[in-house]
Each structure stands twice: as C-alpha cells, then as structure tokens.
C-alpha cells in the first residue's frame, strides 16, 4: 500500500467563496501513482467545508443562500463572547461537512455524473488549507 499527502492553500478575496478543486485533486492523484484506492479531501479548519456536488453557478448561489438562511451572520452568537465574530461560519461548516472521500479506479477519481469537489470558505480573507491524502496501491 502507498500513501501520498499534499496540502492545498487558500486565501479568498471574500468571506464566503465556493472553489472547484477537482482538477487540483486529480493532479495530486496522478502524482501519487496510485491506481486503486481512495482520496480523502478534508478542510483543516472549523469554519470551512469540502463537499461534492454540481459545478453549476445557479446551484452554488442556492447553496450560499441556503447556508445563510439556516446559519445567518449575526452578532449575538454565544461564541462571540470569546471575542470572535464568526459564529455563523462554524455553523455553516457543520451544514456542509468538512471532508469527502472519493474512490480511485484505474488511476482516476471515480465520480458519478456531474460530481465535482468544492472547497467552501465561510470565514476567508486569511490563509486556510485542505489536506489531500491518497491511499491505495
Ligand atoms: Zn470562531
């Protein structure tokens, strides 16, 4: 069994952004030389997420509206008593989830139709990273 680990760095212009990282993960899988196995893609922060869904701009705006509706930016979160202002970003991260596992078959990410990997930033404008760990043979 082989293992290959890389980190993807992000520093978004906006507080909230949704970034398609599929090609970057595919490149890491290619470099790993692993033909059969799994790729774990996991946000290393508690105010960001990783998800798999359609790369369709209307859907991305719908997802953004949905997380903002369920976990709106507010000033009165108890978490803010610590001096932070990102209570909504923690809750949005919980809604989206922080990692995905993608099967690798024949050296390729083995996706179903329209599946793409996204990094979801909820408290950006600073350095953040995602770990990509490829395991297999
Ligand atoms: Zn916080």
Give a brief outline of the structure.
This protein has helices at residues 22-32, 57-70, 87-96, and strands at residues 2-10, 17-20, 37-43, 48-53, 99-105, 108-109, 116-121, 128-136. It is α+β, with helices and mostly antiparallel strands and 137 residues long.
Using brief descriptors, characterize the structure shown.
single chain, 137 residues, Jelly Rolls, three-stranded antiparallel beta sheet, binds zinc ion
State the helix count.
3
Helix and strand pattern:
EEHEEHHEEEE
Q: Largest sheet, order of strands side by side?
A: 1-8-3-5-6
Which small-molecule ligands are present, each listed once?
Answer: zinc ion
- Overall structural domain count: 1
- Beta-strand content: 35-45%
Radius of gyration based on Cα positions: 16 Å
Low-confidence stretches: none
């Amino acid at each position: 069994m082989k293992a290959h680990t890389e980190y993807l760095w992000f520093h978004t212009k906006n507080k909230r952004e949704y970034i398609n990282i599929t090609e970057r993960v595919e490149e890491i899988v290619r470099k790993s030389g692993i033909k059969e196995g799994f790729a774990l893609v996991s946000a290393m922060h508690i105010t960001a997420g990783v998800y798999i869904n359609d790369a369709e701009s209307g859907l991305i705006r719908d997802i953004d509206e949905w997380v903002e509706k369920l976990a709106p930016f507010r000033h009165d979160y108890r978490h803010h008593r610590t001096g932070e202002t990102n209570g909504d970003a923690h809750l949005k991260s919980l809604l989206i989830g922080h990692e995905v596992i993608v099967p690798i078959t024949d050296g390729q990410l083995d996706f179903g139709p329209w599946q793409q990997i996204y990094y979801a930033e909820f408290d950006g404008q600073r350095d953040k990273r995602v770990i990509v760990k490829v395991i297999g043979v």
